[in-house]
Design goal:
The protein is mainly α. It is built from 20 helices and two strands. The protein starts with 9 loop residues before the first helix and ends with a helix.
Length: about 500
């Protein structure tokens, strides 16, 4: 009973998700799921990371135009993992994603580690997205001649760093984000001698999305569908306008950093794919999960890969990759490089919409993972409460919203982005392992979707995840280990004793 590796039977998991009184409202179709996936995937990643991957950021081997191959390599790794997610999502159509799948196959301790780990991807990742959204939105307001106060659009730590940068390199050397922080440093009110500097914009967008998600999954999905159309249109707009300014000479040499540059580019471009697994957190709200979950996961991956390849080809053909070092908005920078400032402004508006959708989907995913952990007794019962009218996990949604809003108002983005992909890659690898375990333990269980070529596909998924993790810096690994250690303390102090399986 007290085994750390006790597993939860799949039939029990499915029965809990089907419980009319405790389960969530089944509203979503395959189209909604593909849109949710695209909503989660296309965001800060493609609008920011593409330039770093192509240029190497000035310190790493550059992928150059070969970033197209980097994108395809990352898509392949995510595709192997996506197939494993699809089989699990059709087999165990309940909230919880990788946490639930691990509980069914690898045992309670591994499931707890994954659930705790996914907070890095969803809640902590969303803090960074909210801060980034605020920066883009303030730039957008400036385009309309509206100047939002700088002291309400940054955090105090950033103002100190900007002041230090201005003192050493001069005000002219500051980036757009540093300039805002520097203005806040120069002009901010004080209350009893305490400087008033916080990111009100980031907190407000988080609050608005939290209210929408409490209202209901259908309403949230409708807003997301609308935004997804806009963000796909934004990337297509960039490709259509940029294609007229492509110079084939910029594609030579195609692999300036060799294979090392391409592989480094793949580990960086993984940022742009984080999110497809968020589709699986909505399994309990899907009308026909056995059929539609695989379509949602794999369909969104395919659409995004096609858009990414097109954008990367056009970007690398428009502007020499060396010009993208240290550029936070490479697509807009490329349009400005070819003197199309009107198009760069429109692209900034599209980026704001894109990040709104990422906030929406990640903010949707986190409470559903917390709810699944609460159902199992590993977290307090309040996380499992479902709103009597809206049928949404409202307490978990509000608590997640408060957490993200609070930290996005006061945190420095560079310190928050601790490469959330290490947690995600770890989860992906364990889902692939879970498929191997389940095929061995329950080979005859009916499956509406089956991963092809088992064990090859799961093993390739594991290998590529491990190889991408190996590229991450030592500091990221250290912080990841500290995060997991904190989670284990909570599990042994609370979850292990309160586990419903332990008391069954």
């Amino acid at each position: 009973k007290m085994s750390l590796f006790r597993t939860k039977p799949i039939d029990t998991l499915v029965a809990e998700g089907s419980d009319e009184g405790r389960g969530l409202k089944r509203e979503l179709t395959a189209v909604d799921l593909v849109a949710l996936g695209i909503g989660a995937i296309i965001g800060a990643g493609i609008f920011a990371t593409l330039g770093t991957a192509a240029s190497g950021g000035g310190t790493l081997p550059p992928a150059g135009p070969g970033v197209v191959v980097s994108i395809l390599l990352t898509a392949l790794a995510c595709g192997f993992c996506g197939l494993c997610y699809a089989e699990f999502a059709s087999l165990v159509p309940v909230a919880g994603s990788a946490y639930t799948y691990s509980y069914a196959t690898l045992g309670e301790l591994v499931a707890w580690i994954i659930g705790w780990d996914l907070i890095l991807e969803y809640a902590v990742g969303n803090i960074a997205v909210a801060i980034s959204w605020a920066a883009y939105f303030r730039q957008l307001l400036l385009g309309f001649g509206i100047e939002f106060p700088a002291f309400l659009a940054t955090d105090y730590r950033s103002t100190l760093l900007a002041a230090k940068a201005a003192a050493s390199g001069g005000v002219g050397a500051l980036s757009a984000e540093q300039s805002v922080a520097y203005q806040a440093h120069l002009h901010h009110p004080e209350l009893f001698g305490v400087p008033i500097v916080f990111n009100l914009l980031a907190a407000l967008i988080t609050a608005a999305i939290t209210v929408l998600l409490v209202k209901g999954i259908k309403e949230s999905a409708r807003v997301n569908d609308f935004i997804v159309v806009l963000k796909v249109a934004t990337l297509l707009f960039f490709v259509a306008v940029g294609a007229f300014f492509v110079k084939p000479a910029n594609w030579t040499p195609f692999f300036p950093g060799g294979f090392s540059g391409v592989w480094m580019g793949a580990s960086l471009m993984f940022f742009a794919y984080i999110g497809f697994d968020a589709v699986s957190t909505a399994a309990e709200e899907c009308k026909d999960p056995g059929r539609d979950m695989p379509r949602g996961i794999l369909g969104s991956l395919l659409v995004c890969t096609i858009l990414y390849v097109a954008a990367a080809l056009v970007l690398s053909g428009m502007i020499p990759y060396q010009k993208l070092v240290g550029v936070a908005d490479p697509l807009a920078a490329a349009l400005a490089w070819v003197k199309q400032d009107w198009a760069a402004g429109l692209l900034a508006a599209g980026a704001v919409f894109s990040m709104t959708a990422v906030l929406l989907v990640f903010q949707l995913g986190q409470p559903r993972i917390l709810m699944a952990m609460s159902r199992d007794g590993l977290l307090g019962p309040w996380f499992g409460k479902v709103h009597p009218k809206y049928r949404t996990p409202h307490v978990g949604t509000i608590l997640t919203g408060v957490f993200v809003a609070t930290f996005s108002a006061v945190a420095n983005i560079d310190e928050i982005i601790q490469l959330t992909n290490i947690g995600t890659l770890f989860a992906f690898a364990l889902v692939c392992i879970g498929i191997l375990v389940l095929r061995y333990r329950e080979p005859d269980r009916p499956r509406k979707f089956r991963v092809p070529f088992v064990p090859l596909v799961p093993l390739l998924g594991i290998a590529m995840c491990v190889a991408l993790m190996a590229k991450l810096p030592a500091l990221t690994w250290e912080r990841f280990v500290i995060w997991l250690a904190a989670g284990l303390v909570i599990y042994f102090a609370y979850g292990r004793r309160k586990s419903r399986l332990a008391r069954a």
